[in-house]
Amino acid sequence: MVISMNVLVINCGSSSLKYQLIDSETEAVLAKGLAERIGIEGSCLTHQPAGKDKVRIEAAMPDHNEAVRLVIEALTDQEHGVVSSLAEIGAVGHRVVHGGEKFTKAVLIDDEVKKDIEELSSLAPLHNPANLIGIDSCKANMPDTPMVAVFDTAFHQTMPKKAYMYALPYEYYEKYKVRRYGFHGTSHDFVSKHAAELVGKDRKDLKIIVCHLGNGASVSAVKNGECVDTSMGMTPLEGLIMGTRSGDIDPAIIEYICKKEGLTVEEVNAVLNKKSGVLGLSNHLSSDFRDLDEAAQGGNEYAKLALDTYCYRVAKYIGAYAMAMQGVDIIAFTAGCGENNYAVRAGVCEYLKYLGVVVNDEKLHIRGEDLIVSEPESSITVMIVPTNEELSIARQTMEVV
Ligand code: AMP
What we know:
By secondary structure, this protein is of the alpha/beta class. The longest helix is centred in the C-terminal third of the chain and has 25 residues, at 301-325. It folds into two domains: 6-151, ATPase, nucleotide binding domain (Nucleotidyltransferase, domain 5, 2-Layer Sandwich), CATH 3.30.420.40; 202-389, Nucleotidyltransferase, domain 5 (2-Layer Sandwich), CATH 3.30.420.40. It has helices at residues 64-76, 111-119, 128-141, 161-164, 170-176, 185-198, 252-261, 265-274, 277-281, 289-297, 301-325, 335-340, 342-352, 361-364, 389-400; strands spanning 6-12, 17-23, 29-36, 44-49, 55-58, 89-96, 107-108, 147-151, 207-213, 217-223, 226-230, 330-334, 371-372, 381-384. It is globular, with a radius of gyration of 22 Å. It starts with 5 loop residues before the first strand and ends with a helix. The chain contains 15 helices and 14 strands. A hairpin with an 8-residue loop joins strand 13 and strand 14. Strands 5-4-3-2-1-6-8-7 form an eight-stranded mixed beta sheet, with helices on both faces. Strands 11-10-9-12-14-13 form a six-stranded mixed beta sheet, with helices on both faces. Helices cover 38% and strands 19% of the residues. Bound molecules: adenosine monophosphate. Residues 214-215, 243, 288-290, 335-337, 340-341, 367 line the site of adenosine monophosphate (AMP).
């Protein structure tokens, strides 16, 4: 029997809460929204019911419990609501950032799971505690609704040990679980699956490289339906150059900058996370690729350097993963830049010519839709696949409940 229900997808940050209510049968988004500045002066909820005007609700949200209460109120409101009562929400899917080695797929949340998520907070101190607050707040407001945790790391748990181990003293792995985990798993899973559908093949028969190029960015190698490598590591700082994150650097730089600038390790860590990436490379011009594109076209050398270095790093990872999988059938671009940015896609594809890739430049200009951009004679199929992490979370939630 196929059960259909509405699934509420929750992505909870320390002071924000994003949500979507999805009809599991039609996969239509019934409503979506964002509660901002939770626990801070001036909090507000933006609620967008499908087919109706967006509403902005300015109300005090001293904590996440109140934010969830307001979200439910908006979803069931006579005027801008989309369901008549809470009973019409069959399940809640929560995005949880770190599932460590414990979680290889989505799970029904019980006290044990909550304890595990809490224990994993040392690996994701900015994210897991906020995700837990979201879970508790939903539980408080809808005690009888099943809740599912969907982990950003889960899809990458199939990586072989040679791909996830760091060359550090082995006891750091045993004692502290220092290893590579990878993130954006929900997106890499969704996009690789959909990429296979677009060429009418089973993911199990393909070698796919997914380039998730958003503000955070990562590449993954998906061989026969399983992730075999990905560019983010123990934390989302490793790998590609990102909006404000450095990606791969020589670890010795940290001590060197600490001494030169008189900074603590924590302060340099903050620089690597918040002031580096294309923002740092562009001499603090912007972390947004739209600004960088415009500046580069106007002749700004820093912006050009940031874009060149960014594309070069993506291309290097593609090269490495082609080797890791001993071949590539599909390269898929996704997320903000991957879906929309011509300069980045064209910059990366320029390097791919060496592998026999032939892309259609006109198609590379098209934004935000499922599209094969390579020519039939291309050695590898290159495509754009818009990601949809909320839909993927809703699907996984349905599978569990
Ligand atoms: P995300 O984190 O997935 O929302 O991606 C954010 C990044 O995508 C930002 O750097 C944006 O500049 C970039 N982006 C979004 N839309 C466009 C667009 N229309 N053209 C170029 N870049 C875009």
